[in-house]
Amino acid sequence: MSALIIVEHDNQTVRENIRAVVTCARQVADSVTALVIGDNCRAVADATAAIAGIDKVKLVQHAALAHGISENCAPIIAAESAGMTHVLMAAGAQAREWLPRAAALADMQMITDVIAVNAPDTFVRPLYAGNALATVQSSDSVKFMSIRPTAFAPIEGAGSASVEEISGGADSGQTTFIEARTSSSDHPELTTAKIVVSGGRGVGSAENFQLLETLANKLSAAVGASRAAVDAGYVPNDYQVGQTGKIVAPDLYIAIGISGAIQHIAGMKDSKCIVAINKDPDAPIFEIADYGLVADLFEALPQLQAALE
Amino acid sequence: MSEREIMEYDVVIVGCGPAGLAAAIRLRQTAAESGQEISVCLLEKGAEPGAHSLAGAVLEPRALDELLPQWREDETCPIKTAVTTDRFCFLTEKKSYRLPTPPSMHNEGNYIVSLGRTVRWLAEQAEGIGVDIFPGFAAAEVLYNEQGAVVGVATGDMGIAKDGTQTGNYQQGVELRAKYTIFSEGCRGSLSAEVMKKFNLRTDDAPQTYGIGIKELWETEHANPGEVLHTIGWPLRNDTYGGSFLYHLEAGKIALGFVVGLDYKNPYLSPYMEFQRFKHHPAIAPLLAGGRRICYGARALNEGGWQGIPQLAFPGGVLTGCAAGFLNVAKIKGVHTAMKSGMSAAEHIAAALKAGNEAATLNDYEKDLRTSWVGDELRKVRNIRPMFRHGLWAGLSHAAIDTYLLRGKAPWTFGHHNDHSQLKKASECQAIEYPKPDGELSFSRLENLAYSGVNHEANQPAHLKLRDNSVAVNVNLQDYAGPEARYCPAGVYEFVKEENSDQHALVINAQNCVHCKTCDIKDPTQNIHWTTPEGGGGPNYDSM
Amino acid sequence: MKILVTVKRVIDPYIKVRVRADQSAVETDGVKMAMNPFCENALEEALRWREAGIANEVVVLSVGNDSCVETLRTALAIGADRAIHVKAANTPQPLATAKIITAVAKREDPGVIWMGKQGIDGDYNQTGQMTAALLGWGQGLFLSSAKFADGVVTGESEVDSGIRVIQVKTPCVLTADLRLNEARYATLPNIMKAKKKPFETLTPEELSVDASDRLTTLIVNTPPPRAGGVRVADVAELVSKLREEAKVIA
Ligand SMILES: Cc1cc2nc3c(=O)[nH]c(=O)nc-3n(C[C@H](O)[C@H](O)[C@H](O)COP(=O)(O)OP(=O)(O)OC[C@H]3O[C@@H](n4cnc5c(N)ncnc54)[C@H](O)[C@@H]3O)c2cc1C
Ligand code: SF4
Prior knowledge:
The complex is a heterotrimer. Chain A is built from eight helices and 16 strands. Chain A is of the alpha/beta class. The radius of gyration of chain A is 22 Å and the shape is elongated. Chain B folds into three domains: about 5-70 and about 115-205 and about 305-380, FAD/NAD(P)-binding domain, CATH 3.50.50; about 75-115 and about 210-305, D-Amino Acid Oxidase, Chain A, domain 2 (2-Layer Sandwich), CATH 3.30.9; about 430-530, 2-Layer Sandwich (Alpha-Beta Plaits), CATH 3.30.70.20. Helix content of chain B is about 25%, strand content about 25%. In chain B, helix 1 (about 20-35) packs parallel to helix 3 and helix 1 runs parallel beside helix 8 (about 335-355). The longest helix of chain B is centred in the middle third of the chain and has 20 residues, at about 335-355. Chains in contact: A-B, A-C, B-C. Chains A and C meet through helix 3, helix 4, strand 5, strand 7 and strand 8 of A and helix 3, helix 4, strand 7, strand 8 and strand 9 of C. Iron/sulfur cluster (SF4) binds near residues 489, 519 and 530 of chain B.
């Protein structure tokens, strides 16, 4: 069993989540090759080679590969998948560009968002926004899979794999990268933010929401809200998190003055860590929060703000 | 405002329930038989036929046999579970006593069905013979001609923002003009109410009275297809009319629900919590143990019976089904009578169209229906429900005398009172402490609500309107302890304390509304007005 | 230019899905279905392009069982010109679906295929990319804005770090995110008109596509409910837990 893992990077540094991918790869294969596709990214290959659990690093550099344009990158993955049993990549924006395209070129049915490995050909993955989990068995000779990095403990330690540069890369001429912009608003986008600070009716008024905005700025977080807060007119509609609003799954979700109606929970229950601050000790939100603080938000928020300075 | 688009039909039907569908099918059948061309369209506010349908339900197939006699041979027809046994029990907190099943509740030859699925199947039959069904469109307005006769309805505008402005998605409503309009909106129809008022259809009658039915569908290993159980007694007190139904369906499903008469007096009563508590009874809990609730919903039902039926015909239109009030309370069945009334309306409309009469008042429809088996049936049980006003035992003993001795032929007819005037002031009543839901058998209201599939476009004006905003707090909260916060099965009404003051305000979570119509009925000062939201909003029941 | 829009029939997004008692799949029997929300955005964008004169025909395609007919009728009522239903017993997996869409695209020769970014049922997020691969076309994914000029689409999409702007030459496959636009409603008169619009039914065999599954679903479970954690006494304890235990803030 041999796995090819695709490295996510910005031509300079390796994304940390590669360590989770290595863990997963080790569960399905005994040899792990990492593939670095980019431009001027020797450093990335070297850094990858120093991660435990990786046997070999392959590096492809070309100007047309600089911005991860799938039309140029996916064919390389498809070609390198020959002879492999698995191709893995951390689920995310880059994986969604590359992997399905590469899998189709190799005539393989990809498996998205793997959260557990039961056997080298059998995996668990969520359906319906995490409301069901399917265990699927693949009959393909190469299993293309994106894995949820949060579901696998990152491998620890260092390694010393060899780096082999292979030639390749061409511009298909179909797609051009124009620019990467940080989001135009002050906050990151709700659905992609790493941290979300969210308020409910307990916040009390539109003015009080400012407290949350300030905290969010501090944390580079997005601001969300429960429907009650939206209905009360504290914030616009597009802040709403929940069954009928946005579904979010950040690393940290801070629910402030939110009671925790099931309809709200449906939109944030997959967050990695949930904090609830509410003065009602019986609020249902505490039943699902990792850390619950019974407190008045007008006291707690300034303190929190100060503690983060 | 620009002119609305107009679509013309011979007959427009409002509401895709059993009454509306039976009318539509009968119209097309009659047209085919007599060689007439009758164009028929049917509007439904739910996102699809059946999405808003909720009943027990035990179906008496009498009307269906008349409408589509071949239904038993149709593989796709979802009416399959014949009733096998039939029990009627009186509950105390710990015990259950079997009572003789009253004749009206006998169910030989009847079927346990999902009304939603039955409606969907009927809708397919109707579409198959050329009825245009438009789900997702609410009839929001009645159209009248210069003479004041009804000439159709208009659908509501779509894409109006909360603040009343037009969004980028604004779509003006459409006028559906018709020679005859059939109102089959079911219990407490909003347009039906308007025409009843406009044409004084209710002058000579006792007011309509109602109950609220709250229902859950469970998947359990203890289902025994064909079994029927009704209970009275616990957890309701003797002075509150109501009881439960529990029907065992195929595929390991049990439909159970609880009906509470909306003439209840104590504003602290919560029909929802009574139902939750009921499920913990030792005779009930084992049936649900280890199972899971898969659907939740609620709907008001008529309890006015024979006395509550208004005049049915007016220029250009008729009332049918539960919009008129043809529910047999003693049986808690109204599907068969709704269908029959729809069929009868259809026959009279077809005849009028053939004779070239447009927008006439079809008094013969009413006469015929009242002398048909529907009238017969309702007349017989007319006195049973009103006696329960005097308490459970008075009701039961009177029901027994009326049914067994007088066989419904008593020379008297009892009247009703308006449900909304029955509430006592909170100061005269005791608060009720309900046990906390345990999350296994009983659930919080919002948790259950997630199983109704309810949704409304968020950016629209609330469809629950207060005639006077100040009444919510000054009367409802102060005098009656805010009963809407308890009777609404969807938690739409919430009294919240305003920031930095002791003042309360009423928050209306209109998006949660499952269109049961209870608030429109029970609000003590009739200050709450239920109107149609943007089409397609409301619950999305799966097999209720 | 002709635009091909794919529309998928899925469980209505407002329905609480449940796993079948036998754990073979998510229950769809009797459950309210609807057009996949992202496909609504794709269709809306195509219609706007037609209204702007960029396109002259919008063809909708759905792959799946007979019930897809209803979704296609809805798409016609919303404004598509013509519908194609590729009838398959159940919804094929993304690769097979992409092969079917590819085969249809080869017959129809559209300038753009607009698709939803993913189906909210299987959450695969593959079909658009796979279709682009099989056709050898460019891809613009998860677009929250798309402008067409001189045969080139300039698209923006939201990524982890902000917004990524690309230009894709047509013919290409574009996938829509919710932010792209707000989908319109079907109107009653258009529902009537939709009944008369051309509707074609095909099968994977007629398109010479092998639509067989590569993945077998062994079991479908309901995920365990999220368990509660601990109460902290004050803000100081909270911050230290977030830093040291959860490691979610620096
Ligand atoms: C809890 C409960 C249990 C019951 N059990 C039984 C039973 O076991 N057996 C039995 O026979 N009956 C039972 N019934 C009664 C039965 O449900 C009704 O008698 C029957 O459904 C009435 O049919 P209908 O067509 O008149 O109205 P409905 O079934 O209520 O249909 C009306 C339709 O019109 C639509 N509508 C309303 N207003 C508008 C508008 N303005 N625009 C567009 N559409 C609109 C509604 O959405 C709905 O789909 C029960 C009822 C309840 C509440
Ligand atoms: S708001 Fe009124 S109609 Fe809606 S669910 Fe509550 S009581 Fe029923």
